[in-house]
């Protein structure tokens, strides 16, 4: 029913020095308030944060598409009324993955080396929770989206802090990071929408709820930590 074909792009393993390159030159154009402000070049730490963020987000969205792809057949066979919801959530995750594939390709960020492992684990998690039942599948979604929502919030805060500091120092923040914040905010909101759907469909009735969600959330945190670095 759903295909992830062509969603994951291979990009060169080398991180280009052009990643988020910003000019140091003042624009010769003038505005009513005077000359245009200088663009602030990224520090090495900021460049590393951005490449890490794109890498882990791409990995996370790939895992999400595979979880939903694996959950859908066994879940829909027993609960046909869930087909539109599962397709809606899958389609959104697939769009998120395409977005981060494009960003990773554009900025020549190295994808995580553990993509094959995460793909197997995500597929297994999706299939096993669906086989356990509707409540377990929804508890899986609740657990994953809780961690992903927190993760995106942290990234958004860091980006806003960078932009705020640049503007405080009198630099032009430019449009690239602001657009990235807007993209991440939209995606975060859609992830939290999935969390709400899961709760509405009895995620908290899964047995054993606290053990199941606790293990999945811990696994997500571990995968995030590793994917940021490897």
TrEMBL record:
Fe cation 1 binds at residues 61, 93, 96, 191. CDD domains: DMQH (cd01042). It is an enzyme of class 1 (oxidoreductase). Binds 2 iron ions per subunit. The keyword Oxidoreductase applies. It is found in: Mitochondrion inner membrane. Its EC number is 1.14.99.60. The keyword Oxidoreductase applies. It is a peripheral membrane protein. Keywords: Iron, Membrane, Metal-binding, Mitochondrion, Mitochondrion inner membrane, Monooxygenase, Oxidoreductase, Ubiquinone biosynthesis. Pathway: Cofactor biosynthesis; ubiquinone biosynthesis. Component of a multi-subunit COQ enzyme complex, composed of at least COQ3, COQ4, COQ5, COQ6, COQ7 and COQ9. Catalyzes the hydroxylation of 2-polyprenyl-3-methyl-6-methoxy-1,4-benzoquinol (DMQH2) during ubiquinone biosynthesis. Has also a structural role in the COQ enzyme complex, stabilizing other COQ polypeptides. PANTHER family: 5-DEMETHOXYUBIQUINONE HYDROXYLASE, MITOCHONDRIAL, COENZYME Q10 BIOSYNTHESIS PROTEIN 7. This is 5-demethoxyubiquinone hydroxylase, mitochondrial. It comes from Ophiocordyceps unilateralis (Zombie-ant fungus). The gene is COQ7.
């Amino acid at each position: 029913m759903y295909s992830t074909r062509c969603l994951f792009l291979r990009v060169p393993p080398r991180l280009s020095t052009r990643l988020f390159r910003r000019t140091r030159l003042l624009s010769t154009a003038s505005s009513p308030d005077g000359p245009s402000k200088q663009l602030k070049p990224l520090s090495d730490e900021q460049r590393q944060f951005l490449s890490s963020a794109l890498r882990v987000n791409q990995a996370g969205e790939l895992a999400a598409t595979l979880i939903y792809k694996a959950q859908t057949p066994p879940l829909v066979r027993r609960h046909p009324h869930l087909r539109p919801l599962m397709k809606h959530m899958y389609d959104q995750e697939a769009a998120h993955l395409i977005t981060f594939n494009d960003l990773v390709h554009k900025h020549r960020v190295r994808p995580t080396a553990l993509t094959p492992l995460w793909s197997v684990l995500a597929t297994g998690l999706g299939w096993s929770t669906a086989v356990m039942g509707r409540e377990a599948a929804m508890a899986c979604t609740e657990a994953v989206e809780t961690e992903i929502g927190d993760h995106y919030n942290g990234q958004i805060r860091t980006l806003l802090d960078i932009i705020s500091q640049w503007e405080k120092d009198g630099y032009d923040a430019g449009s690239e990071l602001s657009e990235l914040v807007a993209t991440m905010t939209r995606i975060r909101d859609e992830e939290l929408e999935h969390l709400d759907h899961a709760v509405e469909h009895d995620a908290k009735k899964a047995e054993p709820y606290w053990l199941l969600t606790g293990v999945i959330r811990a696994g997500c945190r571990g995968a995030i930590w590793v994917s940021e670095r490897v």
